[in-house]
Design goal:
The protein is of the alpha+beta class and 202 residues long. The chain is built from five helices and seven strands. It has a three-stranded antiparallel sheet. A two-stranded parallel sheet has the order 4-5. A two-stranded antiparallel sheet has the order 6-7. The protein starts with a helix and ends with a helix.
Length: 202
C-alpha cells in the first residue's frame, strides 16, 4: 500500500513539474510577443519622429534656397511609401511637374542637403551645371547658403556663363582648389579660374 502511494506521489510530482515547464514555455512566448510588440511600436515611433524631423529640415532648407515668391509652403513625406509632396500656402498639393526647372533643382538640393544633415554624415558632393537654369535670386541663395554649408568636399563644375565674376568672388573664401579647362593645346588645365585680383578690385 505504501509502495503504491509512493508511486502515485511520484507521478503527481512529475505531472506538477511538467505543468510548471509548460507554464514557463507559455510565459516565454507571452513575454516574447510583448517584447516584439514594444519593439514594433518603438520602430514605428522612431520612423515617424525621423520623418517629421526630415520634413521640417527639408522645408527649412528649401526656403533658404528658394525665392520668397515661391508657392511651396512645406514639403511632406508619406510615412508608408516615403514619397514627397509639395504643399502650397492654401494647403493644396502642388504638382511637381508644374514647377520650373530651377525650382526642381532647389527641391532636389533641399532633399539631398536635408538627408545629409539628419544622418549627421558629411559625404563628397559633385554639382554639375547647377546654376545654368537658375535666376539671380536662386543663384545668390545657393552660392551663399548651400555651397559653403553642404559638405566638407564639394566639387562645382560650371561654365563661364554660370560662374560670373560676382559668383566667383562670393565663392572664393570657400575655395580650396580651382581649375579651368582651356582650348589651348599647350595648356589645357589652368590652376585658376579668375585671377584673385578680380575680387580684390571689387
Amino acid at each position: 500500500m505504501l509502495e503504491e502511494r509512493g508511486k502515485v506521489d511520484n507521478t503527481i510530482k512529475e505531472l506538477e513539474e511538467g505543468i510548471v515547464c509548460i507554464g514557463e514555455e507559455y510565459m516565454k512566448i507571452d513575454v516574447s510577443e510583448k517584447i516584439k510588440k514594444i519593439l514594433d511600436e518603438f520602430i514605428d515611433t522612431t520612423i515617424k519622429s525621423k520623418i517629421e524631423e526630415l520634413e521640417k529640415t527639408i522645408t527649412e532648407l528649401y526656403h533658404k534656397l528658394a525665392n520668397k515668391d515661391d508657392m511651396v509652403k512645406e514639403i511632406k513625406i508619406d510615412q508608408k511609401d516615403l514619397g514627397t509632396r509639395l504643399i502650397g500656402f492654401d494647403g493644396e498639393i502642388i504638382d511637381k511637374e508644374s514647377i520650373s526647372a530651377g525650382e526642381k533643382e532647389i527641391y532636389a538640393l533641399s532633399i539631398l542637403w536635408g538627408l545629409s544633415k539628419i544622418s549627421n554624415k558629411k559625404f563628397p558632393l559633385v554639382v554639375d551645371s547647377l546654376l545654368a537654369r537658375l535666376d539671380n535670386t536662386h543663384t545668390d541663395n545657393i552660392v551663399k547658403n548651400f555651397f559653403p554649408n553642404s559638405g566638407e568636399q564639394v566639387i562645382v563644375l560650371g561654365n563661364n556663363k554660370e560662374i560670373s565674376k560676382k559668383v566667383y568672388c562670393d565663392l572664393m573664401p570657400h575655395i580650396n582648389k580651382e581649375y579651368k579647362l582651356s582650348f589651348d593645346e599647350n595648356n589645357k588645365l589652368i590652376d585658376y579660374y579668375f585671377k584673385e585680383s578680380v575680387c580684390q578690385a571689387n
